[in-house]
Amino acid sequence: MSGVHHGEAIRERRILASHRVALDVLRLVVLERFPEGAVTWLDVGCGRGQILYGTKGVVGEQEVARIRYFGCDGDRNYCREATEFATQQGFVEPQIVPCGIDQLRAQLGHVQAQFVTIANVVHELEPSLLAATIFDGLACLSGNGVLHVHDIRSVDPAELGSVCWTADEIEVVLAPLLSLFKRPGAQRRVQEWGLEEARDWCLDLWRDRLPLTDDQLAAQRDETVGQVEEAIRTVLPAKRNAHHRALKTYLQYPPQTDESRREVSQAVHECWTISAWLEGVQ
């Protein structure tokens, strides 16, 4: 199993706010840090390549030409579409590998990318794969590359199998992993963005701020992933209880707005997903 199911959002060919943030990181940080030569970009859970929509407009056609784009997705049809779309956008010989998220390290651990993106994927991951996916994304980085994780706070329409995390929740559950990094001052590591479509969160992890060799990182993986899973088992019941309280309130005071009706739908779907996962790990 890949641990990811694809939502309806991937059917749309438009630049999402989360994709624009990732492209801005690529343009303002990665390409500035590597002003010459090829830059390797690995897009984890690339879907149909929707993050590439508008790339030329954001980073420029000349810059696109020096980016070596790799992607992976568990759906072979999406991989084929992403390859065609990346070529149309000006990427030279894009390489999209059909593999599940749980096969990332085995299939693409050799890539050593300057930029790795996990965009709009986390809410579709089985919670047990959250830390492992981020760890494996780090393992695919070059010595001075950056891993950019970005996700949404809500899915419309709501989907069974999705769990949307808040910035606060992500910071709690990923604390064992984040503690491995040198702290960038007092700045919060997980940033929350007040975006038009939703209040998203994002996380940028620099490989050169992780004081571990590749071998040490690999040796640390299982222990840290286990610690994150323990944190998730604490956070998810609290999240489900909060949904239960909200639903009881809505039973007494039925939702009157589209926004409140979306909240009800998401609460119902997430309660089922959380219960199914917790029962599966007991």
Q: What does this protein look like?
A:
With 282 residues, this protein is an alpha/beta fold. The chain folds into two domains: 8-233, 3-Layer(aba) Sandwich (Rossmann fold), CATH 3.40.50.150; 236-281, no CATH class. The protein is 46% helix and 17% strand. It contains ten helices and seven strands. It has a seven-stranded mixed β-sheet with strand order 3-2-1-4-5-7-6, with helices on both faces. The longest helix has 39 residues, at 214-252. The protein is globular, with a radius of gyration of 19 Å.
The SSE string, one letter per element, is HEHHEHEHEHEHHEEHH
CATH top level of the largest domain is Alpha Beta
Task: State the fourth-level CATH superfamily of the largest domain.
Answer: Vaccinia Virus protein VP39
User: For the largest beta sheet, what order do the strands appear in spatially?
Assistant: 3-2-1-4-5-7-6
Radius of gyration: 19 Å
N-C termini distance: 19 Å
CATH fold call of the largest domain = Rossmann fold
Shape: globular
* Overall structural domain count: 2
Average pLDDT: 88
Number of helices: 10
Class of secondary structure makeup: alpha/beta
Which CATH architecture of the largest domain is right? 3-Layer(aba) Sandwich
Q: Which runs of at least 5 residues are low in confidence (pLDDT < 50)? A: 1-11
Work out the strand percent.
15-25%
Number of E strands? 7
